Amino acid sequence: MACPVNHSVELNPGLLPLDWLLGTWECDEPGEGCFPTIKPFRYTETLHFSHVGQPVINFMFNAFHAESKKPLHRECGFIRMQPGTNRVAFIIAQNSGLVEIEEGELTGQQLNLQTQSLARVSFAREPHVQQICRVFQLRPDGKLEQTVSMATDNQPLVQHLHIIYRRAS
After folding, report:
1. Is residue 150 within 8 Å of 127, Cβ to Cβ?
2. Which of 18, 65, 118, 124 is 20 to 30 A away from residue 85, measured at CA?
3. Cα-flanking dihedrals φ and ψ of residue 76, to 5°?
4. Element (H, E) at 34
């Protein structure tokens, strides 16, 4: 269940540079996933960004296989900004058992993030993810674009996911 944007509480002033993320985003067309060790796939995804007045944005990402509609990755967590800077941190828990902190910079309406810390459940499937880089870009047409690159124990950093969303609410 998605948490709606809380209109009764003002956005914490420290998060105003990220207000363009708030709300629900849905893909128009399926996104594309690939990696050297897996068969290419297409997926749909919904993103929810909300707040409750604290200096954090809450998020939940839900992806489904475009053809079978089976659930794929789910990510939830929090976004923080270092006060007085353009430094941003995503704190993420994934349904795969991976927990990560991605940090980076906000430049205009583009977020560039990369892994700072990774932890995983002891029985996580191999090969293990070692690095993730993520870019969110609000395009001039008002759509949100996300590109995710990934490296594992046995593969270098390469693009893994690409998708474009439209604002749903």
Report:
1. no
2. 118
3. -145, 160
4. strand 31-35
pLDDT, one tens digit per residue, over 55-112 is 999 999 999 999 999 999 999 999 999 999 999 999 999 999 999 999 999 999 999 9
Separation of first and last alpha carbons in the chain: 15
Tell me, rounded to whole angstroms, the distance of Cα 158 from its chain centroid.
17
Amino acid code (one letter) for 14: G
The two structure tokens encoding residue 137: 């870009």
| Contact present, 79 and 89 (Cβ < 8 Å) | yes
- Which residue type occupies 117? S
Write the DSSP assignment of 13-37 as a string of letters: GGGGGGGGG-EEEEESS-EEEEETT
**Is-contact 35 131, C-beta < 8 A?**
no
Query: Which tokens hold the place of 119?
Result: 């932890």
- pTM beyond 0.90: the answer is yes
What is the DSSP code (8-state) at residue 138? E
